[in-house]
Amino acid sequence: MRYSTLGKATGIVVLVFSAVAWAAESPMEAIRRTVEQATHILQDPANQGREKFQERIAKVRSIVEPQFDVQEISKRTLGTYWQERTDQERKEFMTVFTELVQKTYSGTLDRYNADVQFFYDQERIDGKFAEVDSRIFDPAQNRAFAITYKMHQSNNQWLIYDVVAENISMVRNYRNQFNRILSKSSYQDLIQTLQTKIKELDTAPASASTRAPSAG
Hints:
9 helices; 5 strands; 52% helix
């Protein structure tokens, strides 16, 4: 349940902003506009149908990715192991990790329905860092889920570096998994594990591919 909500929140964060637009918007405004853009794509009749699944997800991805600071997320998920990696290894990890996250949450994103409601409660800004508290109400489950977006300013843009759903941090969750692997084996073993997981997600039913953001 929590992982599903985390996936929904992560997958639903969308939109391409210009640097000027980001500079003019507060973090909460940026999140709100992003969600509106995402829901518009998912509700658009032109994007419906099983045969348009890949196209629909591709459209969402094309506007989701620029809103996340992939390097910062990758750095935080590897923790102390990040410093031990070469520049080439860091690029490799960011590519593989991003693909894993995309594959993990694609099915969850596609199960979005128009009855879901979004609420934006408050934002906290401390210099170049900010947190936006929100809730997602799912009528099918008759309950709301708390989502906090952690953001920072980079090149005059507010970018997301973590999503906390129901007190579960996406970054911390992945870091714990990666640390367990790296404490017992090599970095190449970690990459191989992630690539194997990606292949499994490619062949798994959508419902099974989004149960948990597990790398193992």
